């Protein structure tokens, strides 16, 4: 099977469900605990391109740090990306990457579509 990576937060039920789905389907994925090993700016930009979404669309806007950093008012894409690199808790999860494509596992059907 193709190389598969999951940006995973073991404390998140959606992320655990995505990891279980990969295991169920026999997919050996590289697990990146992105809170412990945050993506670089370049990695984040590459994933945004694969997802074909803006930085804001990848952000967890209900996190306290989002409000603390006043990101709702921020319009500069680069600054939003930098905020996620510096505060990986802001990154929506889980993200599964396969063959140059990516999917956010909310809903989990996105991952099923990516794998098929």
TrEMBL record:
PROSITE patterns attached to this UniProt entry: ARSC
Matching CDD domains: ArsC_ArsC (cd03034)
Keyword Oxidoreductase carried by entry: yes
Name of the protein: Arsenate reductase (Glutaredoxin)
PANTHER family for the chain: ARSENATE REDUCTASE
Enzyme class label: oxidoreductase
GO MF, one example: arsenate reductase (glutaredoxin) activity
NCBIfam families: arsC (TIGR00014)
Pfam hit, one: ArsC
Family per similarity comment: Belongs to the ArsC family.
Keywords: Oxidoreductase
EC code(s) of this entry: 1.20.4.1
């Amino acid at each position: 099977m193709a190389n598969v990576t999951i940006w995973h937060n073991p404390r998140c039920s959606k992320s655990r469900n995505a990891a279980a789905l990969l295991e169920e389907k026999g997919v050996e994925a590289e697990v990146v605990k992105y809170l412990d090993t945050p993506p670089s700016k370049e990695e984040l930009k590459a994933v945004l391109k694969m997802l074909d979404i803006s930085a804001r669309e990848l952000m967890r806007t209900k996190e306290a740090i989002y409000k603390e950093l006043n990101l709702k008012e921020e319009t500069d894409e680069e600054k939003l990306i930098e905020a996620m690199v510096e505060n990986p808790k802001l990154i929506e999860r889980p993200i599964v990457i396969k063959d140059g494509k990516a999917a956010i596992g909310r809903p989990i059907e996105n991952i099923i579509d990516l794998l098929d």
